[in-house]
Amino acid sequence: MNAFDTTARGVYLITVTPFTDSGALDLASTDRMVDFCLERGVTGLTILGIMGEATKLTADEAQAFTRQVVQRVRGRVPVVVGVSSPGFAAMGELTRAVMDLGASGVMVAPPSTVRTDDQIAAYFDMVNETLGPVPWCLQDHPVATGVQMSPAVMLRILKQSPRCVMVKHEDWPGLAKLAALRAASDKGEVGRVSILTGNGGGLFLPEELSRGADGAMTGFAWPEMMVDVVAAHCRGDVERAHDLFDAYLPLARYEQQAGIGLAVRKHLLHSRGAIASPFVRKPGPRLSERDVADIARLVRRQDKRLAELV
């Protein structure tokens, strides 16, 4: 199995959870989706995140989905599982279950109940106790959690968390924070961890790479965009990275609309053959005819621009 550790780089794609048209968990489509992602060069998969509709799954479904993903991946890339929970009993139970199934590690975000730096740090002390030897990713996503973590408190957490191997950076705007975290590790103030970015399907990916990110951990119906942008940037071809990114930007932006973003992503993944149904479980959005027309236009324009960049 590829290691999930502080050297992680590339693209850890946040996956959707496929359902049938009737809303049942679709394990056959799960296999198709995994193959689709791996064929496009991702270096890891992250499941049971916010865009994976984790809160809409039963405990049995979450484990069944994890099992299917891990079995289909067959150790080719790390599989990271979101286990965030205000309660440590639930977090510990899910962590033990997914690690027994073969997951590479887990991801944890702070609950909305913590506010001060001391409260945040104390919460992650308890995360360390709960997870024990399991490698984990610190998710900084204040738009979803309502918790603002300053660079100072994040560095405090990292110093106290020897098994935290990655930061998922999703603050927005957050380029200065990302740069501060990387500068601290470069100076030896804290051990180096992998920093993958998750802002809005990669809406700031080229700039984040220039500030010290090691890659992306987010979702987009064209994962090859992030794979190719990261690869170009890593080989020093920054202008090529920006040109590729610009070609996908209008569709990536459209996919990030509050309210309908997940429906857009599933519609596109369905159109690309990655999943059999675009179904989103309730409560969830539905696309209008105008939405679908917008998407079709953006895809045509994206295809045209990409052909010009070959």
Automatic annotation (TrEMBL):
Sorted alphabetically, which Pfam families does this protein's record hold?
A: DHDPS (PF00701)
Q: What is this protein called?
A: Dihydrodipicolinate synthase family protein
Family matches, as SMART domains = DHDPS
The entry's cellular-component GO terms read: cytosol
Out of the domains of life, which is the source?
Bacteria
What are the protein's GO molecular function terms?
Answer: 4-hydroxy-tetrahydrodipicolinate synthase activity
Q: Where do the annotations place pyruvate binding?
A: M217
Q: Which keywords belong to this entry?
A: Lyase
What is stated as this protein's family in its record? Answer: Belongs to the DapA family.
Q: Which InterPro entries match?
A: Aldolase_TIM, DapA-like
